[in-house]
Write a structure and sequence with these properties.
The protein is built from 6 helices and 10 strands; from the N terminus they run H-H-H-E-E-E-E-H-E-E-E-H-E-E-E-H. It has about 260 residues and is an alpha+beta fold. The N and C termini lie far apart (about 60 Å).
Amino acid sequence: MGDAFIADAFVVGRELRTADLALQAKADLQAAWIPRTADETPVGGRCECGRCAGHGRAYHNGVLPITDIKARLAAHQPMRYAPKPGTLQAAVAIVLRERADGTDVLLIKRAEHEGDPWSGDMAFPGGHREPQDADLAEAALRETHEEIGLIVDRANMIGELSQQRPSRRAFDMLVSPFVFFLDGDPSFDLSSEVDAALWSPLAPMHAGHSHDSEHRLIAGVPTPFSGYRVPGGHFVWGLTYRMIETLFEALDPGYSRRL
């Protein structure tokens, strides 16, 4: 039996063991995602999300601590697509922070500019990859600094979500969402591209309490869209809404995307 054959067998065996460990880790995470019972402290009253069995609303804060998010994203395998020669590539930063009563996500309101297909929309900071960007994660970090003056270090990255394609655009684009975690309450220095930056709690979104719908003009026709109502009355819809749903799917094995 040749040395090459033995080496190949060793590599295959190691890959199989790695795959088994990954499956076991995913199974452990799924097993840990067990709804709390009605006997546990029902802070804020009984939940009415329709997916849980009699626990209190505090359950939805409890399932999203940053330690859980880090563990689940470490086990998550995002889908990536091979870009075509003409495919535009972009990246966004999903920045999280933890407070005593739950985890927040950072959102921006894009300024209204003629010719901007996302003019006035709620979004995550981010943008196109430039030639000087080493990779898409660096593009997300650079754009975040340029748009809102927030410096996020690559060491703060805790995961990546599946790439997204804008569904209402005529051009071919792949958007890569990267998840980061920050401590404290950083200040912002908004560029002319951004009207506002705000923190929104994840728990009401995950529970469905802030789920809403709104009509938007598509080719001149009022069309209803699902989304989330966040602080300030802003409506998160479209690609950003889809990325939040993708985040919840990565964090909660039992999560069902809302229509």
